[in-house]
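Throughout our pipeline, every protein is held as a single compact record rather than as scattered files. Such a record has a labelled line for the sequence and another for the backbone structure tokens. The remainder of this section carries one protein's record, kept here as part of the documentation:
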Amino acid sequence: MPFMTWTESLSVKIPSIDEQHKNLVNLINKLHDAMKAGKAKDVMGEILQELINYTKYHFSTEEKYMQQTQYPATVSHVNEHNQFVKKAVELQNSYNSGKTMLSLEVMNFLNDWVSKHILGTDKKYSEHFISHGIK
């Protein structure tokens, strides 16, 4: 059973962004699977880096659409993105220095942040993006 499950309630009704969100969910599940298999120590750094890189890519897509459509909440939305990347990099640095192990606490942070961000922040741009032709 996956740690985080994609459901239609997470859809922002923009297929290209939904696919990126699904990829983020898959990366979180990949990290969780490694933790459950006792392989987190071997692959944690690699998967965290992949998660950070993909998140930056995904955020740049959303931010490009925000600029194209003059989305009114761009500044606050980008601030949320920046805070997540900062936290993820801190986790990675802490892991790389031996201070943090992959734990359920880290997994819950990732799950909660992604779910709450999609449901609470990303859903707000759906109608705006769609009305400006974003698909």
Summary: The helical segments are 15-36, 40-69, 74-96, 104-120, 126-131. The radius of gyration is 15 Å.
